[in-house]
Design goal:
heterodimer, A: 160 residues, mainly beta, ten-stranded mixed beta sheet, four-stranded antiparallel beta sheet, B: 123 residues, mainly alpha, rod-shaped
């Protein structure tokens, strides 16, 4: 024995400047009632992108979560709608896709057309981020956002 | 007091501080280890196999001291082993083996806890 196999490298953390190559944003994404038009990054946390929802035969979801309470490191839970970790499930249904962690639903995306989709259920609280919403509004910490519109630019939220 | 953004055209991202709630990723629920089980685990392998190890050391040590006599035998000389020496090695080896087997298969607290944990993570 001369050599040991190196441990399998964890998928790199997705940041604002290192989005996955296969990610193609929707022309229009309704994100808990808020309309995002030509928005590439919905939200970031110190440039780390916790969630991406992109185009595909079924909506393509990337999900990352902090691995410590300080938020200095993140880990991939879902890559291109494929679970990267035991306990994380991605389920397709008749009109979209759900992500479940330990049986709890964190996200539901409904594909509307090739160009548009809607996130009508979101709860990132179980994975460390005070972000949740549904088809009535979006709550981020102590802020509520409903029926706003964002076109292009830096996205909907900058988290800190 | 909650701030609200409703029906607005947002030209730049809304900045929100303190969004981390301290929860971290552990999709698999943690195994609940109570202190009693922890103490059982800390106890290490059963006392019986510990004693078997001790005895094995003694028997092997004793057997090594008999090597000069074994060498004579290997050179074709007459056996210089006494009956007592042979009995000691055989009996010591036998008892050691017995203790190992009993220690291995006799259920003990540590094994019971380990089995419970293995079963939990195998699910």
């Amino acid at each position: 024995m001369t050599n040991q196999f190196p441990p399998r490298a964890a998928a790199p953390v997705i940041k604002r400047d290192s989005l996955p190559e296969s990610y193609v944003p929707y022309r229009e994404l309704v994100f808990c009632t808020n309309r995002l038009i030509d928005v590439s990054v919905i939200m970031d946390y110190h440039s780390v992108v916790p969630l991406l929802v992109g185009r595909g035969p079924v909506p393509q979801v990337w999900l990352q979560a902090p691995t410590n309470a300080q938020g200095t490191d993140f880990r991939r839970l879902v890559t291109a709608s494929v679970s990267m970790q035991a306990g994380v499930q991605v389920k397709a249904d008749a009109n979209g896709l759900s992500v479940l962690v330990a049986g709890q639903r964190l996200l539901h995306v409904r594909g509307i057309s090739q160009e548009s989709a809607e996130v009508d259920l979101l709860d990132l609280r179980p994975i460390g981020l005070e972000v949740h919403g549904d088809d009535r509004s979006l709550h981020v910490a102590n802020i509520e956002l409903a029926f706003n519109t964002v076109e292009g630019g830096g996205g909907l939220l900058t988290l800190g | 007091m909650a701030r609200e953004y409703e029906r607005q055209q947002l030209t730049e991202p809304v900045a929100v501080k303190h969004v981390l709630n301290g929860k971290t990723v552990s999709p698999q629920p943690h195994y609940e280890l109570n202190e009693a089980d922890f103490v059982r685990l800390q106890g290490g392998p059963s006392k019986l196999s510990g004693f078997a190890n001790l005895l094995a050391g003694g028997v092997v040590g004793y057997a090594i001291t008999l090597y000069p006599k074994l060498e004579v035998l290997m050179m074709g000389g007459p056996s210089e082993f006494t009956k007592g020496e042979v009995r000691t090695v055989l009996a010591g080896g036998g008892v050691t083996l017995l203790l190992y087997v009993v220690g291995r298969y006799l259920p003990n607290d540590r094994q019971r806890v380990m089995k419970k944990i293995s079963g939990y993570f195998a699910k």
